[in-house]
Amino acid sequence: MTLTKPAAPDLLETPEWRIEGRDKVTGAARYAADIARPGMLHAAFVGSPYPHARVVSVDAEAARTMPGVRAVLAGADVRPARFGRRLQDWPVLAWDRVRFIGDRVAVVAADSLEAAEAAAAAVAVEYDELPAVFDPEAALAADAPMLHPDAAEYTYFGGTRPPRGHPNVQGHVIHEHGDVAVGFENAAAVFEHEFSVPRVHQAYIEPRASLVWIEGETVHVVTTNKAPFALREQMAVTIGVPAARIVVDTPHVGGDFGGKGLSLDEFALYFLARATGRPVRSVLRYADELQISNTRHAARIRLRTGVDRDGRITAHQARVVFDGGAYAAGKPVAGLLPGGPTLTLAGYHVPAARVEAVAVYTNTLPAGHARAPSQPQLTFAAESHLDLIARAMQIDPLELRERNAIRAGETDVDGAVWHDSLAPRVLATLRAASPSGGMAARDNGRGLAFSARHVGRGKTSLTLTLAADGSIEVLTGVADQGGGAHTMIQRVVARELGIDAARVRVRQGDTGHANVDPGVGGSRVTPVAGNAALDGARKLKARIAELGKTLDQAARIAAPLVVTGEGEQNEHLYGVYAYSIEVSVDRETGSFRVVDAVLVADVGTVINPVAVRGQLEGGFVFGLGQAVMEELHIEDGRVTTTNLADYKIPTIADAPPLRLVLITDAPGPGPFGAKSAGELANPAVGAAIANAIDAAVGVRVMSLPITAEKIRSLLRTKELRAADPE
Amino acid sequence: MRADRRLIDVLRDDLGSTGTKEGCSIGVCGACSVLVDGELLSACLLPAVFADGSVVVTVEGLAQGDELSPLQVAFIREGGFQCGICTPGQLIAATALLAEHRRPSDAEIREWMMGNLCRCTGYHGITRAIKAAAA
């Protein structure tokens, strides 16, 4: 049996050629906004100008008679339709109450977008303003305005919604392990710091788009949602149509970064399609992306940690308050918190901990998932906190981390015991990769940050068919948001079968054709869909062996061989990573630049070398943007950074060099020992830079983004104190 | 043609050339970059009437038949894209760059490509691709 022997050289060592590469460089690749249907109408929404108000009346008479207008719907027409990924708390169109500026109350379908927008502007809505609350702590006060008096009516997927101590709580969790009181008693020193992180946007370049039409009894949806099967289930409940009669098709997705797991427009489009009998499309304007879609959660993080004389952690306590905005609809996890909300010292041995996390309703745009949910917030806090502890204890920051890095058999901050740990090795590798000796210039400084991110978990399946020409077609429901999922599947199958990658064709099917898949997210695709591809290839190989034939002979038998590959990854494992970043600070202006950055990452076996490098480089610059320049400014509930000129993301001129050191020989649970890479590079950039700034000029920035203004102001305060100690 | 009709609407809606993408709609992200008589412009800002009688090159016009341009090949080989939504604009801008500077320096690449945002690659793959195509 020659099939078992991988072709030499190993396919995995050859850089991949993206399956969709030609389409993406020629403009042939189709995205949701590129798809039109004959007779298609265009939708425009009417949003609330108030952060919290009662909807008194909606007068659509004038709008209905305008040229080209085919339908105008208000909340009363869709009541009680609400949507959401886990908790369906967001009305498709508000019928009695709006909860943030931009919350939708009506929608128009018209022959052209211009006509739809003109009619939307002509819808007269009367509101009765209610007291609003913008600060999550204030929203938890006993007499705070209540946002969701009808919470008992909301659909919650997967059981019963966890109990809440206050009606403005979305989700609340307390983790406790070990004896925290004794741990603090035994500490040689106890440190307490508070950090804050603002709202930031995923800022994919492609705005959300969707197209809905009804054919017979079937509802067709073309969407930018990266989890089409999950959208189908959510939509079935929202619109009251069985899932089997909804077909969701996600073409190429133009960037996701966590944000496109939530759909906004598809539900209203269904009601418009039903009312008009026509296909209806909506493409969000970027201004709306920044004002109404689900951002990363702002967070206030208070950390308290006791250490012994050597800086070893004895106990840890934390309280994390997440601003969840007006709806919890964007959160997919059961606790209705961003994922991993209690990992306030990820990657360390923590013998005793009590960590509380709460997500709170406020009258601001909803928050949801964003690349490595919770981690950029918590890692900024944790790694700044540890650096401050190292300074106070006069211990080298790397040394302090080496002493506390989790080892096999030890317990982490979540109370989980790690059976194996690459943490010490990652830190040793970072030590070796960091330049030793002094800084190149006086106001240069080096900071480091270390953390851990789970290897994705989940379950999926896909179908492999051996075609008569000897090629293999893989049918999968995995959408590709740019990570290279389909190429990964192709290479796993090809390597296992010992054939050329070009002989494996990967086709993405809509929810009517492909097997159920949980969607792209949570660093899941390679370990889960990759295992399904490997399982499928193995099954195919076994079938061919049973027939006593070669692959080519088997291809020519009358009935094509079809197998289902299944993949599941439920182990709770981590990929560990660490940064060392050198900055150069200008004391006059507070501005700074990154002059060197090293990332050590435990990624396991690499399937797509070009894509893994791209995930890490791209994650670095994504993390850098959210660390030093990005902030969605919100004033009294109104987003004021409403376009990509005001909400600045890094350009090519902002991208510093990055040295990558990959640890690939510690196998993970994915195919051939793969782990995950997509969420390792962005979370720790903020802390590494804050620590580097402190090392350079001796000031500490306690909030993101780390701006020149903040540094300059801290430097001025320090100078004034030095000049006048009183 | 109506004076307020943008070049991007004509390309995408009237001609069905959807390779040119619309991102920010205010001329900041560069996803809609096109060449109008060789000049690099944002199709989301340009009234279509201004392009009347001009040669407009979009991403669909970069390959010679089935043969990809060296820049297109380099974007695939070097990881110049991930999601691909900014790629048509990046390729158009980089094509214009290489027409101006046959061997652009890092600084020239940075300055020229600053108007084309990419959220996926961190720009490293794009820089590598441009240098590879210029070599």
Which segments of chain A are poorly predicted (pLDDT under 50) over 5 or more consecutive residues?
none
The proportion of residues forming helix of chain A, as a percent range, comes to 25-40%
CATH architecture of the largest domain in chain A: 2-Layer Sandwich
- The end-to-end span of chain B amounts to 43 Å
- Straight-line N-to-C gap of chain A: 84 Å
Class of secondary structure makeup of chain B: mainly alpha
Give the percentage of residues in beta strands of chain A: 25-35%
What is the total number of structural domains of chain B? 2
What is the arithmetic mean of pLDDT of chain B? 97
Shape of chain B: globular
What is CATH's topology name of the largest domain in chain A? Aldehyde Oxidoreductase, domain 4
Number of helices of chain B: 5
How would you sum up the major sheet of chain A? 7 strands, mixed
Mean pLDDT of chain A: 96
Number of domains of chain A: 3
